[in-house]
Request: fold
Amino acid sequence: MFRHVKHLRFPGWTGLLSIVLVALFISAETAVGLPPTGNPCGDCADPCGCEIYCAPPRCPWYVEAGGVFLKRDTRGGAPIATLGTGLTPENILLTSGELNAAFRGGPRLLLGHTFGQTAWQMDFTYFWVDSWIDSKAVRDYTENDEGGIGNLFSPFSNFGEPPIIGYDYNNFLSIREVSNLQNGELNLRYTFPMPNESVTAKFLIGIRYLSLNERFDYLSQSQIPLPLGSATAISTRTTNDLIGPQIGGDFYFFAFPRCWINFEFKGALCANRALQDTAGILTDAGVDTPVSGRRSRNATAFVGDLNLQAVWQVTPRMLTRIGYQVMWVESVALASRNFGPLAGILELGPAQIDTSHGAVYHGPRIDLEWVW
Reply:
């Protein structure tokens, strides 16, 4: 009947680093014995017109269209219900970390332009991911001290310390979480001159916007007070609007003609306009009492982004990209972490907001690129 709190694991950073090191090794091996020009396929006067590119094609315009398939991970989870009074590991029956934010997909689009024969490029990127949605429920049929059935205790009473009729002695409790993510970037890239074309290195600077909106719903039912019982329905909504400058790097490592390993990293320091809005209804002995609370805060957030892809030139004008993306966000307001204030704050205020938590998004990415 008891459950252990689930601990979520983050992506294998050592594995990702190993892949990058292998790509560097392949590039170094390829560079041995290159022609004096540094191009393993020979000279090409037009970087947008060769039959076989050994460096990625540099055309006036380029477009990427594809999709991302991301999983959402958060560190641990907030306790939601205990079986019995007191927040102890043995009593915890339900946490927000038990909700499963499985892989969800969404479209991704990039539109870019190369400025003539210069080393500068500019591109705009946008993607969004379909909502992560999951729910979980628990029941208890044990007798309680008030003469009814149910010993599930809520965070509104600090898990029964002391118990509060209307919030505790529940026989049923359910939670539901919805999370949405959108991302937009405008980046300027500078291509460094390299000794040979087996490695292409770019410096990246730009601006990033990220929107993270969530909702956490809570419902509990109790037989207490007898005979009509009570119920609690609370919904906490959070919004995060991040915008700020970012820098990074973009590397292409030549593997063999028409194929490269692409590694890109970016970091953005953002201003976050965070909002927490909680509303609900307390039903006690047939009488409904509405509750609400709202609080906003300006915070400083960080967004990190790693992308590793295999790039294959299918035709002189079309490339395929298949790889893995890892993105993490720090100092944001998560709905599950802003839910569950003590009953006095929920009913009388003032509302609080917590922007000290973060989330990791990771999963495969597939794109088609057209150049002209």
